[in-house]
Amino acid sequence: MNGDIDVSRHCNAVEFADGVYWIGALDPTLRTFDIILSTANGTTYNAYLIRGSEGVAVVDTVKENFSDEFFARLESEVDYSEIKVIVLNHLEPDHTGALPELMRRAPQAKLHISQRATSMLKALLKPSSDAFAYTTVNTGDRVSLGDRTLSFLHTPFLHWPDTQCTYLEEEGILFSGDVFGCHYCDKRLFNDRVGDFRFSFDYYYAHIMRPFKKHVIDALKLIEPLTLKQIAPTHGPILRERPRRYVTHYRELSTSSLTREIGSDDHSLVIFYMSSYGNTARMAEEISEGAGGVAGVRVSIYDLEGGETEPFVDLIEEADALLFGSPTINGDAVKPVWDLLSSLAVVNLKGKIGGAFGSFGWSGEAVRMIEDRMRGLKMHIPHEGMRVKLIPTEEELDECRSFGRRIAEVLIGKRRERAVIDFAYLV
Amino acid sequence: MAKAKVTFEDIEQTVNVPAGTRVIEVSEKIGAGIIYGCREGDCGTCMMHVTDGWNNLTEPSVLEEKILKENMASRHDRLACQAQVLGDCTVKPA
């Protein structure tokens, strides 16, 4: 099937199931996507067309400057007056760039988007969006094209709040948006024809989906029960040969490996530190000692001087609590701490417990600055950090152990009775 | 000035606040588990559940109602960056 396919040589729609067509565009020269992703051989913007007995649906569009190719492929198969439904699985500009022009050419078509996409639609397409008729859809909602039925899966945060998937029931095809996608441009289009794209697939997951693993697992609960004959994502090859293995791979990539190692009952607390004269290191050891004494908490301790960012990011992703220790040098935390704290966009930190500590010479700003950064990363800072002027005394080391213990107690959910405090006394 | 007690259920901490104080002004200072994104009522990150004293918070604005709906809030969920404390209430992360 499609043995000699080369979509770079024509601008026609490519049929890959009965009445189902690829009408996307190739972008082979792109080398950086969205600032953050390297794209060694470019990408594709996949859009699809489904012909039913009572109308046509278009699923997603392309980046604006690839509109000509998209419209040419679309026009090769249908007249604009036939388009009844436009589905937007995801409103990022690389999939909605051709939308305003498509709506101009097919004003009778009704947009089907997720509830969370409504504000984005207005923000992305202002001010013309006022003229667009749209309906919001959720899991279980269906739209009929006569002999074809599209049903919707609410799969938020894969990788924007608005994302959804659309399933063509009669053909078992999942139009998955960016899920199961990758930046890999190949004119042969199908996973059983293109080159080796495993790296691109995993790289895409690591940078786009990884921060949303919890949402991936939620989405897989909706996707796994489906009969899947093909998966049609918005970037990269159409997955028509053994599509389910990509679903299985997503589950593997999204499942915690730490839980398998230490059991799901233990909580992981990781301490990272840098130390100039050994004082912050000493604090780290005592905090570790205090936290480690709380049953159900597994403490790991790392000197940032002896490691590299990437494996530390892996550790942080699976940790339940993170403590950072830094001396204060010239009024700031030290660079390796900031390097790590600025490398965490690919993992989800929301709600993890955080804390900071450090020895200082005269002003000690580092601890508060680290705490602020952690709050900015949506972490929860239950206790004010530990600051010690130069060499910690025995009493201060006791306080370090207490600090570690209190953080660990928050981690295991141990409650302590507290008196009512007055707002005026809060710092 | 009228006072009210706001209790953060996740950390079992109660704070006496002047009426009209926004929950966001208190929760971070005492280390409660509600987390924040935009801090201006647009992103929905700081959604909290009001377990007691629902009527003792200011009414949600039209904009807050919209964001709550978009984020599929359940009954008695509010945005901590918007809700102001008028009387005793208990909240926790949603």
Automatic annotation (TrEMBL), chain B:
Gene3D superfamilies: 3.10.20.30. One of its GO terms (molecular function) is 2 iron, 2 sulfur cluster binding. It comes from the Bacteria. InterPro entries: 2Fe-2S_ferredoxin-like_sf, 2Fe-2S_ferredoxin-type, 2Fe2S_fd_BS, Beta-grasp_dom_sf. CDD domains: fer2. It holds the Pfam family Fer2. Residues 4-94 form the 2Fe-2S ferredoxin-type domain. This is 2Fe-2S iron-sulfur cluster binding domain-containing protein. It comes from Candidatus Thiodiazotropha taylori.
